[in-house]
């Protein structure tokens, strides 16, 4: 299916995963210009791409970027039990395989490529980067799930019990949590839209899903120093879903030379589409400014960028060799 509206062409397609599942993918491409760079969306837990991320994707496509998204297994229009993540590694592998299939098309060979991850999608983006540390040109991490906030995290005794039960009854909805929609999205109309979206999961987290979210966020928190790509991390000061302090920790500990942290007083978790229009404008002004500085203003193509990075690596190795001699 292809729809053209406001100089943006929207397309949908299903691809098959290595496990034989039908996974939904979609894209938003500017019509009147060649995309100046590619952005790959990693959506949040219980969310999906084609509806909840539509406003984000269209906004960036109108700025001249090619946008691609995929609904994870058990999410949105993809196959699988709704709200069930049997393995976070599978989610990362599915996204990485699809995203690289787009970047490696002949017409995209010299375009820069960025990851945009929201909440749980921030964790997905960071783990995609970990698979190929030198492959991506940057990431925009919106309230990334590097640690689940205290309000949302079960107590240690409950975590121990849920870990054991997740092996016995992995799909059961037993994890007690607050209503994420109520505490993530500030604007009541947005909450209403998400509740009416049948592709968004609204039940309690399933046992194995909860275990995978805890396991992955804890692992990421322990290994923040491994993050080495350019990144922009955005977090609302009043976020009660993911921990804003770990975004600060990510900024402090990541080995990236190019890293930026933006904290927004009074804003909640859903920075891309859950805030007031005025606040969303502020967030997107920061995103587009960051992108423009890296994908357009310096005029580098992907091939030139890779050569520079390789030369920098050779120079560093030579300096280390000289110092050891």
TrEMBL record:
<feature type="compositionally biased region" description="Basic and acidic residues">
    <location>
        <begin position="298"/>
        <end position="312"/>
    </location>
</feature>
<feature type="domain" description="Serine aminopeptidase S33">
    <location>
        <begin position="34"/>
        <end position="272"/>
    </location>
</feature>
<dbReference type="Pfam" id="PF12146">
    <property type="entry name" value="Hydrolase_4"/>
</dbReference>
<dbReference type="InterPro" id="IPR022742">
    <property type="entry name" value="Hydrolase_4"/>
</dbReference>
<dbReference type="InterPro" id="IPR000073">
    <property type="entry name" value="AB_hydrolase_1"/>
</dbReference>
<protein>
    <submittedName>
        <fullName>Caffeoylshikimate esterase-like</fullName>
    </submittedName>
</protein>
<dbReference type="InterPro" id="IPR051044">
    <property type="entry name" value="MAG_DAG_Lipase"/>
</dbReference>
<feature type="region of interest" description="Disordered">
    <location>
        <begin position="298"/>
        <end position="325"/>
    </location>
</feature>
<dbReference type="InterPro" id="IPR029058">
    <property type="entry name" value="AB_hydrolase_fold"/>
</dbReference>
